[in-house]
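sorry to bug you again but im stuck and you know this stuff better than me. what follows is a protein written twice so to speak, once as letters and once as structure tokens for the fold. mainly i need to know what kind of three dimensional shape the backbone takes. anything you notice is useful, everything is just below:
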Amino acid sequence: MRIATWNVNSLRARADRVEEFLERQDVDVLAIQETKCKDESFPWEVFEHNGYDVAHFGFSQWNGVAIASRVGLKDVERTFPNQPPFGKGGKDPVQEARAIGATCDGVRVWSLYVPNGRSREDEHMTYKLAWLRKMREHASAWLAEDPQAQILLAGDWNIAPEDEDVWDIDFFEKNRITHVTGPERAAFQEFVDAGYTDIVRPHTPGPGVYTFWDYTSLRFQKRQGMRIDFLLASPALAQHAEHAFIDKDERRGKGASDHAPVLADLS
């Protein structure tokens, strides 16, 4: 089974690229983030025409997550229980479309779009950490209930866990940029401590290996990126990881997302 995660940064704008990617890379399951559309404007035909079942969760032109699978799609769950809502200034908190889960050929796949902290002092950072804390509680409970559960936490984590995961850690610290702070990295590490494994890094080692390049300042051309998209597997699933890679070609060319797909092959 080949599983991928990809923040497409507007699915409607990149529907053709997504369709070509699925065929070119022979993907069985795709976890998608930032669809940026409602169900009524979701391009269902792109997936159904190519033999994929698809589940989507989106309210508006912001956020949005989906899972497309050609190996089965069961027990769809939109949001995880008690997912923290967000309301600017504490007013009118709403549930954002940031998590969707489904079982695909025995693997419980979660497509996650972790909130962006925006700035180190912003209220979004508090929201981000609370969101991660609640998700980790559930992820830990799933393994406690069934240590043999095959679970994949896939998505845009908006965290660079290691210094080598950003193009210049001194630049990030000097400018007080998010994604690399102690609390964010500690939140990511809690998933690892709970038993989840990054199944991609062993196959894509070293500094300068990124999954995201900002559109501004020619970051891609300058090789100034971040590794913030991950596939974290439960112990029972991680042992089946045979190969993984980042499809950097999808960051090239006209109409590219600012993220590259991340893929893993499971026996």
